[in-house]
Design goal:
Shape: globular
Distance between the termini: 18 Å
Largest sheet: 12 strands, mixed
Number of helices: 19
Radius of gyration: 23 Å
Amino acid sequence: MAYLSDIEIAHRCVMKPITDIAEAAGIDEKYLEQYGKYKAKVDYRLLDDCTKPDGKLVLVTAITPTPAGEGKTTTTIGLADGLRKIGKSSVAALREPSLGPVFGIKGGAAGGGYSQVVPMEDINLHFTGDFHAIGAANNLLAAMLDNHIHQGNSLNIDTRRITWKRCVDMNDRQLRNIVDGLGGRVNGMPREDGFDITVASEIMAVFCLSSSITDLKERLSKIIVAYNTEGQPVTAGDLKAVGAMAALLKDAIKPNLVQTLEGTPVFVHGGPFANIAHGCNSVMATRMALKLGDYAVTEAGFGADLGAEKFFDIKCRYAGLKPSCAVVVATVRALKMHGGLKKTELAKPDLGALERGVPNLLRHVSNIRNIYKLPCVVAVNRFPADTQEELDFVIDACSKLGVNVVLSEVWAKGGEGGAKLAEEVVRLCDEPNDFTFSYDIDATIEEKIDAVCRRIYGGDGFVCLPKARKELDDIKALGFDGLPVCMAKTQYSFSDDPTKPGAPERFKITVKNVKVSAGAGFIVVQTGDIMTMPGLPKVPAAENIDVDENGVISGLF
């Protein structure tokens, strides 16, 4: 049987004018700023003017990702559609895709099958220009920093301790480490430099955690770009860059409104990576979804050890959000891969591999229930090759933890395939919960790192390399020890070793670097080999993307 590609399905959708979507969501026209017929920005003043009580907040997360795929975004969209199918008012809030992965290994990232947000080509490419604005603000700050040094360096910046990098929203390994300022005195001060991908910029994190223009400017002012010769931090505020940066971001911080294939309202806004940043869409978009829907469905990047942990411990803590329940997405295929099967072997039944792999799912479920004290449901994306015996095994394993399993068919059936999941989510949202965090914010930095390593990852704590130990001591001396921690770790394992799938035990996390993101308001703890500028694969997805003479794009999955 021949299946339509994601983009072919999207092209067959008859989209509603975005004004109709806004009206159905209860957004007055005065808050709407249209970007063509099918997308718009919504003025953040809506948050101050809307008197409707907040709806229920539902987080969609997943098992540790594998090349077999889990379908977290697809499930998020299908659940929002499914809630509408059973008569509930729902609004989804998602991250914007980064151009780097779209042209690299992932292709499109706006859901899949009959569970997509549209217009998917716009969302996956330039959309409303938010990431370009973030990149411009980042690079303006870099330019003002280097110009300050060139013009006399009155702040006594130590050019060996510049921490701010330029950025571009593309996978470009050639730019990871560069030397710039060459060509004589008129062309700047020669120094080592580098680029991050835009979604790794601290401005992306600031953008997503800001609650207003005022909050945005305050956070931007705190960004540390370098240290002076006395070891004191130099900030964007010191460089007088904040006003101009905020001017570049003033429209970008307004959440973007689009729709699912079935006309459910969706905010797609912001997109920090979860393995190097906090991995969640903007606070403003989430709050709008809560104001406009009885159920706000959102997602967090990668597995629950990364995206969900940061959603709970950073985003919810700062924004004062209280989730009502969580959905953990899994596939039998991916669990068998965690059990040791190769990707080419996943179609054949193998209860032994499933038994070895299912502890990964159970650890994620246990963390959400027992650490964060939230009710949860497991959503299994069913593939044609899944046997009933394998599905029963997963159902039985989860039932021992008191967690229901719902088979999800949103890829093939859209909202209809997510109706059963929606019913379970509604049931869980009506249960009382004692949502809490995985660590106390008043704990020491070491205690916070240790709590995540032991309680969330299932390890035996952490070890600090000498460089990281000095960085930790410096951060504490500067008074930043009251911030939450943002763990930068491989997405492919609970440990910091990507070759250890499943639910590894008796390991310690190695902390290699520690830095403070004072604007975002967290301490980045780098473990393993985490790249803030990815590279393209041997066969990038860009090779299959094209546009015809009518402007119709193909190849975005």
